[in-house]
Amino acid sequence: MRTLRWFLLLLLLLFSTSLAKADVITFEGLSDGTAVTNQFSNLLFLNATVGTAGISLNEFEFPPHSGNNVVFDAGGPMSISFAAPVTDVAGFFTYSTRITITAFDASNNVIGTLTSAFNNNTALSGDSGSHPNELLSFSVVSGIWRITITGTLGGNSFTLDDFTAEAIPEPASLYLLLGGGLTLLTFLGKRRD
């Protein structure tokens, strides 16, 4: 009986962590030169274009983190808006100039900024000690509605690959999970008596 209880609690824990997992956007399903806008559910990109290794992307300076595709800041700072607030955003960046990520709330107020570790982390000509595909991540418990990523104002200064955004769990999901866990524990406790 004790083994069954631990097994069920483990299942409950695994289910609860699966609610919080974020999908990784690799940009692999898009063709070279595609303007990325609303191709991904609940996300809206601005000034993002697909670059493919061996075609328009100089993969020797800007190697993809995975696969062959990345997005770059085409024409100005890249912006990503979310249909619902997210708590965490992350991505792998290769850049030829220092980049800044700015997060905004629902009222368009700045709620935080993050700056890259180097001025240039390209593979061949980057700053000493730098490496391409620096992981930059941002976390705000109250919720992020939009981020901007700024390199040079004219764009063409960084690539982004393997982007993730973790949504704030819906209250109904949390209540369902909590209620299910309490019901399970009560049932197991009564069976033991």
Written description of the protein model:
Helices cover about 20% and strands about 40% of the residues. With about 190 residues, it is α+β, with helices and mostly antiparallel strands. The protein has one domain: Jelly Rolls. It is globular. The relative contact order is 0.21. Mean pLDDT is about 85; it is low at about 5-20 and about 170-175.
Topology:
Elements lengths: L1 H19 L3 E2 L9 E2 L6 E4 L1 E5 L16 E6 L3 E18 L4 E5 L5 E6 L18 E17 L4 E13 L3 H22 L1
Antiparallel strand pairs: 1-10, 2-4, 3-6, 4-5, 5-10, 6-9, 6-10, 7-8, 7-9
Helix pairs in contact: 1-2
List descriptors.
193 residues, Jelly Rolls, alpha+beta, globular, 2 helices, ten-stranded antiparallel sheet, 10 strands
Low-confidence stretches: 6-20, 172-177
CATH fold type: Jelly Rolls
Order of helices and strands: HEEEEEEEEEEH
What can be said about the biggest beta sheet?
10 strands, antiparallel
Produce a short descriptive summary.
With about 190 residues, the chain is an alpha+beta fold.
